[in-house]
Amino acid sequence: MESLTLSDVEQKYYSDLFVYCDTDNTKKVASNGRVLDLFRAAQLPSEVVLQITELCGATRLGHFGRSQFYIALKLIAIAQSGLPLRVESLNSVKDLPLPRFVVGKNEAEARHAALYQDTDSQGLYSSSGSGVIPRPPGRGHQNKKGPPSSSSVPVHEPDSTSPVVSPHQSPPTSPHSWRKHKRQPSGGNTDRQPVVSAAGAVWTQFRETQTGPVSGDGMWSSHSPPPTVQESWVSFTADTPPSSALPAMHPSSVQESTTIRTVASAAMTNEIQRQSSGYDDPWKITDEQRQYYINQFKTIQPDLNGFIPGSAAKEFFTKSKLPILELSHIWELSDFDKDGALTLDEFCAAFHLVVARKNGYDLPEKLPESLMPKLIDLDDSAEVPEPTTDVGYSGSPVEVTPNKSPSMPSLNQTWPEMNQSNEQWETFSERSSSSQTLTQFDSNIAPADPDTAIVHPVPIRMTPSKIHMQEMELKRTGSDHNHPTSPLLAKPPELPEEAKLTASMKFVAANTGGESQSGTSPEALKVVAPPPPPPRPHPSHSRSSSLDMNRTFAAGSATGQQQPATVAYPPAVPPRPLPTQAEGVSGGGAVLTTTSPQQIPQQPNFADFSQFQAFAASEQPSSLPEVDKHSETGQVDKSSEGAGPLRTVKSDSQAEDRASATVSTGSSGPLAPPPKPVRRRLKSEDELRPEDEQHGPQKSNLIAAVLATQPSIPRSIGKDKKAIQASIRRNKETNTVLARLNSELQQQLKDLLEERISLEVQLEQLRPFSHL
Amino acid sequence: MAVCIAVIAKENYPLYIRSVPTQNELKFHYTVHTSLDVVEEKISAVGKAMADQRELYLGLLYPTEDYKVYGYVTNSKVKFVIVVDSSNTSLRDNEIRSMFRKLHNSFTDVMCNPFYNPGDPIQSKAFDGIVSGMMVQPS
Fold first, then answer.
1. Interface confidence (ipTM) of the complex
2. Where does it localize (chain B) (predicted)?
């Protein structure tokens, strides 16, 4: 609908005409009847009339809404001025005379005749509806209500206003005629009044109030809402109160008419001004409307701060008998936060849109600013309407936000930018959606972003492959025999754990680093040149160690190179991450993994030793499982290095491992031949890693097992420090050897995986063709 | 920039399909239909780890000489298929992912609408807008 700015005079004039034509009081004027008469009276060729009808959109809608009617009137005025009929000229033509409507005779006479002669068929308004003329009759008709004498007084007031209009168009006789039929109708009207009855009451109500569309509600003080909106509000099927309120208002207003009319003029001018402004912004919600919406909201959801669920809203709005598609569109517009539920503001916006739609307003593509949920108290929403905004969605946010800011200081923080401009208003909506996208993005980040996704699952999922474990066990057994690391016998379990921790940390760091370098992720790996996910093809890997391996391999040789280097590190310097490791040990692998990135290469051994020194025997069992976990996560080369010393230690502390293993497994057969314990230890490491909860029992069991199995291992915490240190040394050496072996095996595994991946890629490339 | 975007329901009938109408659209419809086979295969392939997070983004389903087909499946087995022109500068994987993400977001918005019955063709203008933003501008 084209925007239409009307002067006050025009506004009054048109509203009178509209009311005149709106015999059914539906605020929608049919194409027949008085509208056509009116147009005919404009003395324009019929094709022009048709063109006007089409331009104003009535043919599109099938009837004349208030806006269409006004546009039509304006176009009539344009046509009568001899200007070409264009939509643009609606607003651009200045000083346009009001449209003139003639019935064939002198206007004034026509008015008289129409008014006085047509009384039977019409209600209060008869005649062909002249421009200025109907208005005075309206006012005159107002007088009909009360005794003519009393009415005469108020009539003057309208008269005072009408002369403003009349000079525009009608000959000077109009005022006279006006007054004439002012008096005459009073007599006639009194006769008619009984006939008119309620309908007449309605009409007089309208006339009296002269609030134009607002009068439809019989609300004196209501300022102008969008004209059709109110009408549709009335016609809403589920909405009875307003319509019921209408008749109720009439009698009271009728009685008040005489007294009120004295105030009418002032009120009318105000209302007309507001009316014109309200007309400009068809999406504004008036106070009454908002109150009505709030009441409706309460019927569904008593808590005004609560939500209406989507299903309830659906039922409610389905009652409006709009097509589902339009309701769907309204929902999309009004559910601002896309949560599937309507807050009060959203509900009011949706209701308003439904009302507008029923009145023939087309749904906007975007939510109008005045309907945007305020996210503030209801009180503020009443302040939203602006008297003089442009049609459409321009200035309201600027005004709205100042309203909001004083009332809702807390919200100002969230909307600092909203106070600035329309663009920011828009950005708010975009922000809300973007925040949604952000949140959803985060949920998508987890799978999509390898680095963040991997770190946490790594500790749990990483386990050394069984092959590795077996190999390491073998190595360990071998190393046990070979290594004079037996002094490391009594190495507290913490050593392996810590080494593993460091190794795991390194590994994780390598993983994360490698992954960041390679930009791969589990998902990426899965999707590498559409190959199947790596976990699939690794039967040898127990848990998702393959993932880690792939990551490591994908990380490239960098980590591989680091690993041997790390392996080569003698366990001399206390690990920097020890404190973190300590935390990690207690806190779980994640902590360490996070710290690991910084500590990749140098620290496994450091960690080991510092751990050795730092941890007391009592801590050993507890750290053991955690170290296991970390070593799991670190795995590959890093873990190998850490695991090496760890495992050497473990080999020495076979009992511990066994105990831990047994503890983790739930059984405790602490003593076993050395190879077996080695294997079990490795397994137990794996098992221990995810089994934090067994730390406690493991501790005690480990200690007991250790003590039982290896006399060299200190039986108790404060037992034999020398033995402990000896076992530490042994374990470290074993760890070193095992780490080397591990790195070699990792390399082999990496190669194999690469081959596999390439084969899979080839297969994938071949496969699509099979689908064609 | 996609050449064709399709949303396919769990029962493998299309909820929404839109192509750049320069070429015969039927070819794209056929392509999308055949790509469903690949999607199904990929879904079942990861089926072992069903409980785990199955990757929603399926990646390149299959390439032909003219175009590439990318797939994405939601947790409710609603599939999104994007057909991209190969002659385009090959879009990076991340870009395709972001396109799917936007599609998914817009689709959930459509689902949230209580007036939308699941299984109906998608007629949301907002969804159309998002899709149009992703399509190749018809030249």
1. 0.73
2. Cytoplasm, Perinuclear region
